[in-house]
Amino acid sequence: MMMRNAGKWRTTNGTSLSIDAMAAYMNTQWDGAHDGDIVNGLNNWLGRNAFQVYGYPDYNTLRYEVLHSFETNYAPMVLEHERRGGYHPNGHSNSTFSHAIVVDAYNTSDDSVLFDDPLASYGGAQKFWDHLGSFRQAYLLQSVDGDAPGIVSAK
Q1: SS in 3 state form for 29-84?
Q2: Which residue of 14, 98, 102, 105 has the smallest Cβ count within 10 Å?
Q3: pLDDT, tens digit, 9 for 90 and up, residues 97-117
Q4: DSSP category for residue 16
Q5: How far is it, in rounded angstroms, from Cα 101 to Cα 10?
Q6: CA 36, CA 85: separation in Å to the nearest integer?
């Protein structure tokens, strides 16, 4: 979603953009991809060190990175952790998992954020609204798999 929205349809070596190609660049395994692999995959796709990750971001860092992303032309990706028995913002099943979703829009007047979920087929809405501050409190402060929740954004 991030590369498509930025019009980055091919890597520097000519690989065409697809879910499978991006998964390979991110070293995705059966259980997903780790934060470092995600950032490395995005950077390798572009052929330059353009992305970074902020684990366990405080609210000001999170908000700044969301706002800054609109200046860079690259949507940020939030790496969040949903827990069994907890709220699942777009209607995912009641399970525990780590998840990457893309920020599609942000309203500075009321802190609302529109997320775009690439795993909507797993259950739940593809696009959904939440509030950045409360979303951070619910999903970006605790890890369920040892990988830090956070935000991947362009430098």
Answers
A1: ECCECCHHHHHHHHHHHHCCCCEEEEECCCHHHHHHHHHHHHHHCCCCEEEEEECC
A2: 14
A3: 667 889 999 999 999 999 988
A4: B
A5: 22
A6: 28
